[in-house]
Every structure is written in structure tokens, then in C-alpha cells.
TrEMBL record:
Family: Belongs to the ABC transporter superfamily. ABCD family. Peroxisomal fatty acyl CoA transporter (TC 3.A.1.203) subfamily.
Keywords (A to Z) from UniProt: Membrane, Transmembrane, Transmembrane helix, Transport
Pfam family, one: ABC_tran
Protein name: ATP-binding cassette sub-family D member 4
Sequence ranges assigned to domain ABC transporter in this UniProt record: 412-629
Transmembrane segments annotated in the record for this chain: 76-95, 153-173, 188-210, 273-295, 301-323
Annotated GO MF terms: ABC-type transporter activity; ATP binding; ATP hydrolysis activity; long-chain fatty acid transmembrane transporter activity
Listed GO biological process terms: fatty acid beta-oxidation; long-chain fatty acid import into peroxisome; peroxisome organization; very long-chain fatty acid catabolic process
Domain ABC transmembrane type-1 positions: 141-331
GO CC annotations on file: peroxisomal membrane
Claim: Transmembrane is one of the keywords in the record: yes
Amino acid sequence: MESPTGKEGQIFNIYVFMKPFNFHEKHIVPGYNSLRIRTHHVVHMVDILKQFLGYYIGLIPSVYYKVYGQRDKDGFISHTLWNCGLIISITLVLSSKEFIERVLYISWRQVLNRAVHRLYFSGINYYTLNILDKKLDNPDQRMTQDINRLCDTLGNITTKVIIAPFLIGYYTYRTYVGTGWVGPTTIYAYFFLGTIANKIVMSPVVPWVFKQEKMEGDFRFKHMQIRVNAEAIAFHVSGEVESCKTNNALDLLIKTQQRLFNQKVLHNLVKYLIDYFGSIISYLVIAVPIFSGIFSEDEDIASIVSAYSFVCMYLVFSLTSLVNLSSQVVTLAGVTHRVAQLIEVLNHLQIDWDLNTMQASSSFSNLTKKHKHSAMSSPNTEHSLTENLLLDREDNDSRVIGSDENKLDVVFILNNVTVKAPGSAKILVKDLNLEIHKGENILIMGSSSSGKSSLLRVLRGLWPVEKGSVAHDFPPGPKTVMFLPQKSFLTNGSLLEQIIYPLRLDPNNAISCSECEYLLTRLESLHMGSLVTRCGGLQADPGWNWADELSPGEQQRVAFLRLLYHRPQFAFLDEVTSAVSLDVEDLLYSSAMDLGITLISVGHRETLTKYHQFLFTLDGHSGWNIEPIANKR
């Protein structure tokens, strides 16, 4: 039988298995006085109470045999009333135990998911994981389904494993009292053999659980891809093609599931064999003292057999229940490894992001101490940008976050930067020297795939540079530097939430009425007044998928309105007006310039030149040139 290879085939080891439980231990188990720990203790106490009641319920038949044999009517009535009380009590206990376990499970899921989210949304980890580093399959599934199954399965296993030693110890003693050393020895030998058999047949199953989870994620992703791109697929009339591709993903999933079930056949045979042989072990054990004459003929054999067979059977049950946990352990091992992989990758990405950010900030501080505010030049200029001086300024050092108003004179310094796409050998930009200053609008132009958007990705820190350094130092948030990507992103929520993005609505810092009026006026000037009516108001959440409801031009106008709302000092725009008319484009750019926003734009339209002072051109062969533009406004 084929088995997965690589790490997936070696995941059933204690190091990998326990790895995720060390992650953010202070959050998952913050202390012995935490609410989650106290809840866990309550679960154990309720479980002990359940076992206590279960013991007396297990003795019910033996007492009935006794009162029947003695024709004891009063004893029958009192025993029945006692039993009714036991049944009502254990019903309440079982319901309470299940409820508390579910509360504990959702608490675990919340803290583990939030801990992973903190890493996932830190820096640009979400971008790197989904776009650049695609070695980890389906991170979304790992954060949703896998963490859910991990916490659910762990909750089911934990209580049973913790209570098992106490149950086994007590019922071992009770079995010894009734049967002597033969009873516990026989039962333990049976359990030991069953455990070995279970381990042998369980090991080949674990890798296939891991692989099935991967195929489930691929199949779900394909359906999500269809949902997101339904209109484009309809325009292409490519339903048949996508049906074929989706069915291929389904077939791979079914094939993997079938192999998993094939591996489980032997595992299930062994598991059920242990279960059902365990049901007669108790009678075989109790037969020894009965046939050896330990009990006299005057004693009520039926009552004795019922009582001690229950004790032996419960010892067998306590031991075999640990064996039966193997199927849940298989599931837990698979999803635990997937979550551990995710956490490990995110931790590495976070370390890399922190180092890159620190290096960029440090480079900026060093460069601004040595170099002066300079004019821009092409690669043929004798001296690099950072070596030119403006002698007519008394304060030669660039001011970086120096004033009370947090004003920037220079935002980026690129020194001998070479750019190429991650994983590609083609150089897009070579030996680029550039400073981006306040008030100097730059238009970036060039042929398709020449590296225009790639340059913005480097500035944003999404891509590493092949050579050279990109230095920057500015506070986070859209009030200083803002990037508008080529493809507008519209999140869920109200129209107001789309406009103030990437900020979120805060009840403690609500949007003022004057700001709402300003936004409504802006929407009207952009010919989008009807949109407010369509979505039920500025602050109403229509529950839309905004990308499906708005045209590309409307999406670009909403995205640009974010710029006008936040009024950053610098804005980096990647073809953000390609889907709007020239008059709307003029309105958008003129409004941004009136607000004093420095614009660095990527575009193809010649009409954009009148809003910029410098033209930065990429020739498509790693060359570049920058030159002033005559003011045409």
C-alpha cells in the first residue's frame, strides 16, 4: 500500500505531537487561578462524581437479584426508589459535564485561534504565507477546521486520560478483592496485548489522516475560487472546464479517503476484537473463584456474579477505553502536526519581518545622518542621490519624524537596489538609487511586466531586494504613508467601513457628523450618491460582498476616497484610476494635490503627467531613468 512520504510520513512522534501545546502556553494555560484552569478542575470533579454514581448504578442488578431471591418486597420498593434517585442524579451530572466540556472546548479554540491570528496578521505574514511562500498548504483550513478539530478532540481525550489512572487503580483493587491475583493479572495481560496490537495497526493510518486534511483543503479552496470568480468564469463560458478541474480535486480527495479507509480496516478489526473479547473477560475471571469453591453454596451466587462481573467489566472497560482512544489520537496527531507546522512557519516569518524592519529603520537613521536632501538623478549621474548636497539649506539633515506634527521630508532612500521577483532569475530593476521627498510627485511608467508594481512591493516591504538597501523610518498608520494597490480590496461591513479602511469603527472614537457630511459630499462629487441609498445609508451594513456589487470604476473611487479621508503625507498609487473616466481621474488627483498629499503613481495614461513633477521610466530590461516633467496643469 502506498504511503505518504516526507515529514507527513513521520509525524507520529512525541516532539511533533506536543509542539503546538507549547505555543503561547501563557495564553492557553495562563495560570492555576485562571478561569480555564478552574473550569478544567470543575470538569474533573464532575467526572469523579459521575464515576461515583456510575459505580452504584452498576451494582443495581446485583441488589435486585438479592431482593428477588429473598422475596423482599420492602427491600424491592426501597431499592427502586434509591435507583430512581441515582438515575436522576447521574442524568444531571452527565448533562452538566457535557456542557462544561463544550464551554472549555470553545474557550481553548478561542485562545488558540487568537494566538495564531496574532502571528498570522503580524507584519505581512499573511501575504508571505499565501503569496510568496506556498510550501504550506491551505493555511486557512489549518486556522479554521484543523484548530477546531484539535481542540474538540483534545477536550474529549483529556478528561478520560486524566481520570483513567484513578479508575483503573480503584477497580483493580475491587477486582483483586473478589477474584484474587488471577483477575487483575489476566485483565492487564489482555490489555497489554491489545495495546501492542493497536499501536502496530495505528501507525500506518496517521499519515493518511494528514494527507486527507490536505486534500480536503484543496477541494474547498477550488470551490472558494469558483465563488470568488463566478462572473469571470461566466464571461469565459468556462463552466465545463472548471467542472472538470473541480471534479479532479474531488477525485484526489476520494482516492485519499479510500486509502485511509483501507488502512483503517485492520485498525477497526483489532479495535472491535478487543472491545468484544473484553465483554467476556470478566466472566472468565469470575469463573476462577466460583469453580475453585471460594464461595459457599449457601451464598447468593447470582448476586455475587453480578456484582463482581460488573467490577471486572469496568476494569476492562477502563483499560480498553484507553485503547479505543487510538482512533481519536490518530485524528489528533494529524491535525496537531498541521497546526504545529503553521505555528512554526509563522514564528520564522515573524522573526524575519522584525529583522527586516529593524534593518530598514537602522539604515534610514544612518543614511540621513550622512546624506543630505538631494535632487533625483538617472543611473548615468556622476554621484548617487544620497551623495548630493543642497548647500542652500541651513538644516542639511533630512527631518525624519522630528517635528511635533510628525512631518516627513523624506520617506524612502533606495541605495543601489536590484529588484527581481521572488523565485525568479529575471532582474526587473538594477542598481536603483532614489530618494522620495515631500512635495515631489513621481509618475512611474513603463511597459507591461517591466517592474512598476514590483517596485511598490519592494517599498512596502512585501518583496526583499536582491541587492542594495531600502531605508525607511515612519510611524505606522494611514496618516503618514498609504499604499493603494492595483486591485482594490473591499472588506465586509458598511460603506463607512470601506472608506475609513484600514482603520476600524471604534465606539470610543466615533466618526463625527461633520466627517460623515464631508464623506457624503465627496461621494456626490464622485457620482456615487446613489450608492449610499442602495446600501441603506453610510453606516448600514448591507451584508454585501462589495466586489460583486460595485463595478471596477466604483471600487476604484471608493478606494481613492480612503486616500482623501485619511490625507496621508505620502501616497503610493498603483493604477488606481485605470477604470474611471478622465474627468473623474482629474477630480481625484486634483483633490489629493489640494490636500497636500505627495503622490507616487504607477500608470499608463499620458494624462497623469500633469499631476507629477518627475517621470520615472522602466525600460523592461532592468534599466531606469528619471527626469523632470514640465508642469502642464
